[in-house]
Write a structure and sequence with these properties.
The chain is an alpha/beta fold. The protein is built from 15 helices and nine strands. The chain folds into three domains: about 325 residues, P-loop containing nucleotide triphosphate hydrolases (Rossmann fold); about 45 residues; about 30 residues. It is about 50% helix and about 10% strand. A nine-stranded mixed sheet has the order 4-3-5-2-6-1-7-8-9, sandwiched between helices. Helix 11 links the parallel strand 8 and strand 9. Helix 14 crosses helix 15. The longest helix is centred in the last third of the chain and has 40 residues. Bound molecules: guanosine-5'-diphosphate (GDP) and magnesium ion. Guanosine-5'-diphosphate binds next to helix 7. Magnesium ion binds next to helix 7.
């Protein structure tokens, strides 16, 4: 069921990614044009691209090395949406696997999902990486393994954590994509959730969507008014022009009325366009779900009027692969430069440390030097309130400022006690006289 370009093409939305790619010759060279791809084979399969894969592997390796903790951002597709908007279902549809899903909060930690197309003659592989360990699983037990890992990371209650969990899926036919699923936005804490759950979730989401390197995949339910969506409000705060936001509209089957008008009107300023989908329902297999989806958008009196280039999971997969290639090509040179800078800085720091020591006397001298330097640093931070040694380390600033304030307070205390004792003695003398 290769999607065709319909006659009433909403070129504003559909060509946006291509426009981004047009700015960058390299990325264009890597990615086959949408038309080329669409005429060949089912897009999920064809999205595999030998030239994108090594780049994606590099980015994933950097992610594993936690370079983001060093303040270096990586090009990332981040999935956001209000609770129960269908985020996990969209990821399931893309990966063809079962994730924990249902009402209430299921995704309690950032789930980094790495999908890798695998040769058809090898067995699929599934594993989880978290807290420095690797847990093998299989297709039938992924959802359960994720629940167990989530409990281990974020506790067994309903709390959330910013510590990510990585799911690696190597399977034939999946698009080569890495995406991050985030906890859904919830306004009211349910029983067992901390009072500030909204703020906690908002902070995690903002941390992921704020960097310019992130593409925001905003999942919206067809049954809601987009302009009232919390996820729209949040993504517009960090991406005012909407240039790095793509909307996926789920539950098209449930609320087909007015959907065409909603995605055409684009009241909420989605720069990368809309894709309407219908996810798996009930016990359907993924193949059945795709057939039902195709049938729905082909035959439904209202949904069939929506341009075929903006409907269906295969189209979404293809568009995401394309966007991913574009952002990687655009961001990678800058990322490499930032890593080199950081490395140079750290090597300089390392060189300041003593070299290999061969005798006790040498070791003792080095140790005394380190002690001396540490004492001097502490004296500066804690006694004199100076933080010039740590220009980028806010915690040190805070400690130094605290020392500064305590010193001021100490001075004031001294002065006021002097004033007080002068007044006391004056009072006493006036009383005495
Ligand atoms: P999340 O909280 O955003 O991750 O949402 P889930 O993926 O867990 O989905 C919430 C509920 O909506 C689940 O019961 C899904 O089965 C249902 N759902 C998701 N997508 C669709 C869809 O396209 N059509 C229908 N009918 N139900 C859907
Ligand atoms: Mg979810």
């Amino acid at each position: 069921m290769g999607p065709k370009r319909g006659s009433s093409s909403k070129s504003k939305d559909n060509n946006k990614v291509q426009i981004v790619a047009d700015n960058d010759q390299d990325s264009l060279a890597m990615v086959p044009s949408a038309d080329q791809e669409q005429t060949v084979k089912a897009p999920i399969v064809i999205s595999y691209n030998d030239r994108i894969r090594p780049l994606l592997d590099v980015v994933d390796r950097l992610r594993n090395l936690m370079v983001m903790k060093e303040g270096i951002q990586l090009p990332t597709i981040v999935v956001v949406g209000d609770q129960s908007s269908g985020k996990s279902s969209v990821l399931e549809s893309l990966a063809g696997i079962n994730l924990p899903r249902g009402q209430g909060i299921c995704t309690r930690v950032p789930l980094v999902m790495r999908l890798q197309n695998h040769p058809s003659d090898s067995d699929p592989e599934f594993y989880l990486e978290f807290n420095g360990k690797i847990v093998q699983t299989d297709e039938d037990h992924i959802a359960n393994a994720i629940v167990l890992a989530t409990d281990e990371i974020a506790g067994q209650g309903k709390g959330i954590s910013n510590n990510p969990l990585t799911l690696i899926v190597k399977k034939n036919g999946v698009p080569d994509l890495t995406m991050v699923d985030l906890p859904g936005i919830t306004r009211v804490p349910v029983h067992g959730q901390p009072e500030n759950i909204y703020e906690q979730i908002r902070d995690i989401i903002v941390e992921y969507i704020k960097p310019e390197e992130s593409i925001i995949l905003n999942v919206l339910s067809a049954s809601v008014d987009f302009s009232t969506c919390e996820s729209i409000r949040m993504s517009r705060q960090v991406d005012k022009t909407g240039d790095r936001t793509l909307a996926v509209v789920t539950k098209s089957d449930k609320a087909p009325e007015g959907l065409l008008e909603k995605v055409t009107a684009d009241d909420v300023n989605i720069g990368l366009g809309y894709i309407c989908v219908r996810n798996r329902i009930g016990d359907e297999s993924y193949d059945e779900a795709r057939l039902e989806e195709a049938r729905l958008f082909e035959n439904h009196p209202l949904l069939s009027q929506i341009d075929k280039s903006i409907v269906g999971i295969p189209v979404l997969a293809q568009k995401l692969v394309h966007i991913q290639a574009t952002i990687i090509a655009r961001c990678l040179p800058e990322t490499v430069r930032k890593i080199s800078d950081k490395l140079n800085h750290n090597v300089t720091e390392l060189n300041k440390l003593p070299r290999a020591l061969s005798s006790t006397a040498e070791a003792l001298t080095a140790f005394m030097q380190i002690m001396g330097a540490a004492k001097e640093s502490l004296r500066k931070i804690l006694l004199r309130g100076e933080f010039d040694e740590y220009p980028d380390d806010i915690i040190m600033h805070c400690t130094a400022r605290l020392a500064e304030k305590l010193n001021n307070f100490n001075d004031e205390l001294q002065k006021s006690s002097q004033n007080y004792s002068t007044k006391e003695s004056e009072g006493y003398s006036s009383y005495a006289s």
